[in-house]
Structures are given as structure tokens and as C-alpha cells.
Amino acid sequence: MAPRKTRKNSRNTSSATQDPPATTPPNELGELQVELERLRQSTEAQLAEARAEVAEARAQAEAAEARAQAQAAAVPAVRIVRIPRPRGGKGGLQAAMGLEDDDELYASIQRTVRRAVIQAGIDLHSTLSDISVEKLANVFKKVRETHPYMDRQRFSLDWPTLELVKQYLRNHRKYSLKVGRLAPYSRSRSTQRLRNVDDDISDNGDGEAAA
């Protein structure tokens, strides 16, 4: 029985002599705590700096907006003088639009009207009564967007644009008749001729041919 007791004691002795768990020395813990504190302070400083930069940028933006508003208030509003559709008198459409001294703008508006009519899908051989309201509205909108001068505050119901549309269709139809592309309208048709502003002004001074 003695040998068995000896082996048991040897196992107990081996277990008792195992190395204890590793532990971090106190000096290393102190260094880690110091480093963590340094990182925390550095992060807080960076956050404070970022907040200050954001606040400064916001203040500058608000100041710029205030200056812009003050400048806008100081500029007198431009008063748009309404130009009504003429009834009688002399002069052509260009003069009626107040563009008798601005041939370049008038010609540019004419070109825009022609492009807008084509883009709207309007049949160039049609009469005004054949054109849908939606297509005419698209033409009016395109002309206003391209030329601020054609604002509705100046020209109610887009009357100059309507006149230019009629003018374009009338001239195109006249040319088509001349070259044989279009048969003449019957005299019985009430839409044979598109009445235009020059009928009221009694003078076709803008140089456009009448149908």
C-alpha cells in the first residue's frame, strides 16, 4: 500500500508547483491609463475644434445671407409696364411690342416661336382653330422661358406670341400655296384667313407678309 500513497503525493506535489496566472505589472497599467487619458483629451480637443469651425462657418453663411437680403432690399424693384394688344393706330407688330428699336431681340423671338411651333408638333398647314390649347400653351411657355421680355406681366394672355404663331402659319401656308404643296382653302371657310394684330393697326410695318 505504501507505493500507492507515494504516487498520490507526487500528483499533489506537481499540482502545487504549477506557475500562477500571468498578471500585468502595476507600472504597465499606469502607463496604459496615462495613454488612454491622453487620447481622450486629444479627441475632446479635436471635437471642440470641429464644433468651433462649424459654428464659424454657420455664422459666415448667415452673415452672407443677411448681406444679400440687405442688398436685394436696397435695389429698387423693376416695374414692368404692361403693353396691351393694340387697337387701331399705326405701326406693325414689332412696334406694338415696344421693340421698334431692337431688331435683334424681335428677330430672336420670331426664331424661338418658329422652333416652339415645330417642337409642339403643330401642323404648319393648320389653322388656328385646328391647334389644341395644350400645344399653344407649350409654345407660349417656351417663348416666356427663352425670352424674359415676353413675361405675362408685360403681355397679357401672351398676345404677341399668338400673333407670331399666326404670322408664321400664314406665311408658311402662303409659300406652300405658291409652290403647289397645298390646295387653296374654299372661300366658304370662315378660317381661310388668320386675323392678326396688323389688321387692327392697319399697317404691316414689321415686314411680314399677310395671307
SSE topology:
Elements: H1 2-16, H2 26-74, H3 93-96, H4 103-119, H5 133-146, H6 159-178, H7 197-201
Helix pairs in contact: 4-5, 4-6
Keywords:
single chain, disordered C terminus, mainly alpha, 211 residues, 7 helices
Describe the structure.
The protein has 211 residues and is mainly alpha-helical. The protein has a domain at 93-201. It is 59% helix and 0% strand. α4 (103-119) packs antiparallel against α5 (133-146) and α4 packs across α6. The longest helix has 49 residues, at 26-74. The N and C termini lie far apart (139 Å). The model is unreliable at 186-193 and 198-211 (pLDDT under 50). Residues 29-74 form a coiled coil. Residues 1-10 have a biased composition (Basic residues). Residues 199-211 have a biased composition (Acidic residues). Residues 1-29, 188-211 are annotated as: Disordered. Residues 11-21 have a biased composition (Polar residues).
Order of helices and strands: HHHHHHH
Which regions have little confidence, pLDDT < 50, spanning 5+ residues?
186-193, 198-211
Radius of gyration: 44 Å
Helix percentage range? 55-70%
Largest sheet report = none
Supply the number of helical segments.
7
Portion of residues in beta strands equals: under 5%
Could you tell me the number of beta strands? Answer: 0
Arithmetic mean of pLDDT: 79
SS content category = mainly alpha
CA-CA gap between termini: 139 Å
Shape: elongated
Region (Disordered): 1-29, 188-211
Biased composition (Polar residues): 11-21
Keywords: Coiled coil
Biased composition (Basic residues): 1-10
